Amino acid sequence: MQGTKRTTMLAIVVLLTAGQALAGGFNIYEAGAKATALGGAFTATADDGSAIFYNPAGLAFLEGSGFDLNLMPILPGAKFTGAQRPDGGHSTGKTVDQTFPIPGLYYYQNRGDLALGIGVYAPFGLGVEWDDPENWIGRALSYNVDLATVYVSPTIAWKINDQASLSMGVDIAHTSITLNKYKLLPGNAMDGINAIDITIEGDSEFNFTPSFGAMIKATDKWTFGAMYHHSKKMAIKEGTLTLTNTAEPGLAPSVDGLIASLGGATHTGSTMLKLPHMLSLGTAYQFSERLRGEFDMVHFGWSTFSELALDFGNPLLNQTIEEAYKDVWQYRVGVTYQISPALTGLAGYVRDETPQPVESMSPLLPDSSRNDWSFGLAWQASEKLTFTGTFMAVLFEERTNIVDGEQQVFGPEDLETNPGGTYDSFANIFGIGVGYKF
Fold it and tell me: What is the rounded CA–CA span in Å between residue 136 and residue 133?
C-alpha cells in the first residue's frame, strides 16, 4: 500500500503540468477585422485603429480621431486517433464545440505631428475542452484548459516628416488560467478509474513592457514598417490547486487519506509564464491605383519558454517541466483591391510554423504547423463610417507524436499520462469591424 501511495503522489505531481497548456503556439494574431482579412499582413499598412497592435507608427498618418471596434469569434476543433491497440482498435476523441470571442477595441487621436491611441486586445489565448471527459483517454493530462491574456496598450506616435514616423507604447497585460484533469487509479494507466478531479486556477499580476513601431513611406508605391512587442514574464503568485475525490465508494476512503497526506484538498502555488516577443517586418507595394500588396515576416521568441517551474511549497508537488520551444518565423501575405469607391476586397495567406517540439504534443495543446487563408470586404458607408467583414480558415497539418513506432517524450514518466497518437485540428475565424472617424 505504501508503494502504491508513493506512486500515486508522484502521479499527481505529473498532473500539475499546466505548463504544457501555456507554452505552445497559442498566439492570436487576429486583432482587427481588416488585418485578419489580409492574413495579418498589416505592418506596412496599419491604417486603422488596430495599428496599435500591428504597428503603432501608422497612427501618425491617420487623420483626426476615431475608434475601431472589432470582434473576431474563433471556432476551433480537434480530433485524436490513438495508436493501434493489441486488439486492433484505436482510442479516439474530439473536442466540444466552442466559440471564443476575441476583442479588438481601439481609440486614436491625431494632433498633427503627434498621435495618441489606446487599444484592448487578446494576443495570447487557448481553449481545449475534450468531449466525454470521464472517458477521454487523455483526461489524466487534461480534459479542459482555458487560457486568456489581455493587453491594454496606450501608445504615442510621432510623425517625423511626410515620409516617416516612430512610435512607442506600453503593453499592460493580465493572464488567467483554468485547467481540469483527473488522477486515475490503479497503476496510473490512462484507462484507469477516475479517482481525483483536479482543478488548477490562477491569475497573474499585471505586467508592463514596452512596444515600438516605425513606418517609412519611401515612395508613392513602396512602404516599409516594423513592429515590436517585448516578451513578458507573467507572475502567478497565488494559484490554487483543488483536489476533489471522485473515486467509487470502495476506494473513496483511501483517496481521502491520500489527499490528507498531501496537505489537504486545497493548495496555493506560484509560477512564471513566459510569453514571447513579437517582431514584424513588413513591406507594401502599390501595384496600381486599385491593387496593393503586402508581405510580412513575423518573429516569435518562443525559445524563452524552455521550462516551467511550479512551486507549491511542498516537495511532493514542486516540479520543473521541460518544454524546449523554439523561435519561429511566420510569413504573411495580404492583397487589397478597390472594387468601387466604397467597396474594397481583401485577401490573405499565412504560413505559420509551430514552435512546439513533438515531445510536448498533448491534449493540453496539440499544436502543428498550419496554412491560413482569409478574405473579406470593407465597405465605406460614409466619410466617417466603415464596416468590415472577414473570414479565415486555419488548416493545421495532421501531426503525430509517434515516430518510427515509438512515442516521442522528454521522459518515460510522460507515457503514464500523455496518449500516443495523431491529432487533426482546425479553426474558423470570423471578424466584424466597425470604424468611425470624428
Answer: 5
Which of left, alpha, beta for 239 (phi over 0: left; psi -120 to 50: alpha)? beta
DSSP helix/strand/coil, 290: coil
Look at the chain and count its residues.
438
Contact 95, 142 (CB under 8 A): no
SS3 annotation, 357-373: CHHHCECCECCCCEEEE
Residue 119, domain extent: 2-437
**Amino acid identity, position 33:** A
Identify the DSSP state of 97.
P
Cis previous bond, 186, omega within 30: yes
> pLDDT value at position 8?
34
> What single-letter amino acid sits at 79?
K
The pLDDT value given to residue 244: 94
Kindly compute the dihedral angle of the four CA atoms of residues 309, 311, 314, 319, in this order, to the nearest 10 degrees: -10
Task: List beta partners, residue 110.
Answer: 115
**Nearest CA-CA partner of 247 in 179, 317, 184:** 184
Check residue 315 and report its DSSP letter. Answer: T
- Amino acid at site 42: F
Q: If phi over 0 gives left and psi between -120 and 50 gives alpha, with beta otherwise, what is residue 19? A: alpha
User: How far apart, in whole angstroms, are the C-alpha atoms of residue 250 and residue 246?
Assistant: 11
What is the H or E stretch that residue 321 is in? strand 319-322
End-to-end CA distance of the chain: give it in Å, rounded: 73
What CATH number corresponds to the domain at position 171?
2.40.160.60
Q: d(Cα 255, Cα 268) in Å, to the nearest integer?
A: 20
> Hey, CA dihedral for 410, 270, 125, 277, is it positive or negative?
negative
Q: Which residues, 6+ apart, have CB-to-CB distance to 422 below 8 Å?
A: 80, 81, 398, 399, 400, 402
The confidence band for 190, taking pLDDT boundaries of 50, 70 and 90, is: low
Tell me the mean pLDDT in the region 157-169.
Answer: 97
Helix (H, G, I), strand (E, B) or coil at 7: helix
Contact indicator for 68, 31 with CB cutoff of 8 Å: no
- Total domain count, the chain: 1
Q: CA-to-CA distance for 284 and 289, rounded, in angstroms?
A: 14
Can you name the residues that pair with 243 across neighbouring β-strands? 198
